[in-house]
Amino acid sequence: MNKSYVYIFVDHNTGKPVYVGKGTRDRDAQHVRNAKNGSTTHLYNWMRKYKERNNIWPKPFRIKDSMSAEEAFSLEKELIAQYGRRDTSTGCLFNHTDGGEGLSGRIPWNKGMSVPIETRVKISEALRGKVNKGRVCSVEHRINMSIAQKRRYERERMNIAA
Fold it and tell me: Can you give the pTM of this predicted structure?
């Protein structure tokens, strides 16, 4: 299947690339979401600083689309070797590996394994009596969430009508 692509983030202030990756679906955009949500890696810290300087989030550029996973991994490795990595003092990329290994097709180590009955009993006892498994919100906070939800519903209704 040819669903993979290779993408790159570029610092438009310096013109240098800062990250090269291989992805499927919306993997490239996921980096920006992670940065917005406060994840802390060198890349995500750079993204937040980029946003402060330029008043816009960095956008990934897809170098090549519709590739097989093997082709994409190969191109990713070539580009990382070409630009070099910061952690090895060989270049400008925030990548922490030489590329080509990714998690495509990875199967979790515990897939298909059943949970032992002793573990299920422990979990059941720990949760027993807990009505609200999330955090407890104040009345004021619940009112604010309700108002926000109503506004969201109105916006969606207006967009559909337009």
Answer: 0.64
